[in-house]
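Researcher: Let's do a round of design. I'm pasting the structure tokens now; please hold your answer until I've finished.
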């Protein structure tokens, strides 16, 4: 049984940025040298009855929980049975206050009761430990300050509950390996919030590359550029909790590259820094990651928190895949995909849509209705690549995977 009291890295006393970086670098580079996880996770047949209610428990509010709330009605029988807000084994509440004092659970309850998905039947808990002890759940959605996610996910997995985790799954290799073991030993399924696979432009690029539209994919480049906004959450000041911008932002573009190139990453190098946000020393506002794939091929990702406040959108995301026979890319703010090949000049291709969005797609896979767009192994492997890239940026070394 995972000891939910374990408080490594992100615990009650901050170990500090330098100590965290030394620990992350040493552990991650040693672990990366071991290669991929020894046992592949297999998506089994249907594990949930399509005709039965689907009981969902929410853990935390940090991240993209709205992706569940907005698509809940698309899943027959799905309901938010319970919502827990804190990690009882951690010194801090999610707002940064120290645990142990008074806690306004009534305010949380009123918020839940005011949500359209609640319908008056959602039970409210202060900690996820209490919720897991008392509730019968089919799925939990984990969205805590990032370094705490693997502990909640593992605790749910050990109770036989399927997991939808905010990314990153973990910020250290040891915690990622612990979670991988918990999921594998308890025969549950886990998915990560790799929701950037689902917009039609990126889904179309994947489908066309897989169909051979550009020949053999040789090189890929991804971009994630975000506004910083007025402020960021308190834990962005603490690297051991935040984990790093490669793990929070660049991970989406790294996932694109891993997905469309469709082969393992062999080596990774990276650089990152903070040039414009001194008040958040645990975060980086710029990062570059370079990937070398098994069997040949390369990739590059840039990520930044420097998009101007007056930009028309929060993010400027781009993906370009270069193959032996052509190039396909989503290159501007428009949801268009351009293809050019040796045989034909540039043209916009018809967009394809996935069968469902992230939450409904995962639920359908649990009910045996189709395969999830995100494989059982992908969340772990992409997170492993990002932890290794973060270690490479901290150390100035190329990391072998």
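Researcher: That's everything. Go ahead.
Model: Designed sequence:
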């Amino acid at each position: 049984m995972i000891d939910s009291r374990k408080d490594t890295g992100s615990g009650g006393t901050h170990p500090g940025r330098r100590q965290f970086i030394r620990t992350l670098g040493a552990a991650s580079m040693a672990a990366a040298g071991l290669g991929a996880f020894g046992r592949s996770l297999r998506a089994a047949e249907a594990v949930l009855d399509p005709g039965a209610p689907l009981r969902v428990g929410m853990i935390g509010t940090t991240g993209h929980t709205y992706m569940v709330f907005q698509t809940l009605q698309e899943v027959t029988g799905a309901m938010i049975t319970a919502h827990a807000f804190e990690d009882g084994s951690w010194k801090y509440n999610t707002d940064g206050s120290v645990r142990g004092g008074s806690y306004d659970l009534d305010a949380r309850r009123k918020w839940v009761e005011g949500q359209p998905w609640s319908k008056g039947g959602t039970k409210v808990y202060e900690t996820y430990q209490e919720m897991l002890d008392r509730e019968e759940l089919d799925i939990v959605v984990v969205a805590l300050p990032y370094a705490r996610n693997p502990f909640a996910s593992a605790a749910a997995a050990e109770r036989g509950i399927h997991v939808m985790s905010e990314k990153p799954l973990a910020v250290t290799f040891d915690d990622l390996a612990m979670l991988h073991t918990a999921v594998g030993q308890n025969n549950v399924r886990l998915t990560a919030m790799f929701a950037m696979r689902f917009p039609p432009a990126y889904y179309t690029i994947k489908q066309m590359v897989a169909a051979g539209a550009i020949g053999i994919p040789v090189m890929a480049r991804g971009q994630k550029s975000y506004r910083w906004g007025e402020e960021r959450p308190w834990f962005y000041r603490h690297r051991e909790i935040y984990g790093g911008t490669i793990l929070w932002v660049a991970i989406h573009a790294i996932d694109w590259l891993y997905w469309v190139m469709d082969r393992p990453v062999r080596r990774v190098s990276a650089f990152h820094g903070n040039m414009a946000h001194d008040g958040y020393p645990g975060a980086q506002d710029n990062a570059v990651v370079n990937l070398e794939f098994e069997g040949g091929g390369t990739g590059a990702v840039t990520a930044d928190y420097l998009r101007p406040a007056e930009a028309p959108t929060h993010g400027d995301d781009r993906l370009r895949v270069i193959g032996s026979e052509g190039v396909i890319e989503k290159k501007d703010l428009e949801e268009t995909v351009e293809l050019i090949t040796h045989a034909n000049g540039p043209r916009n291709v018809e967009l394809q849509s996935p069968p469902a969005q992230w939450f409904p797609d995962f639920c359908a896979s649990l009910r045996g209705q189709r395969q999830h767009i995100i494989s059982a192994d992908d969340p772990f492997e992409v997170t492993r690549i990002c932890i290794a890239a973060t270690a490479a940026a901290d150390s100035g070394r190329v990391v072998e995977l």
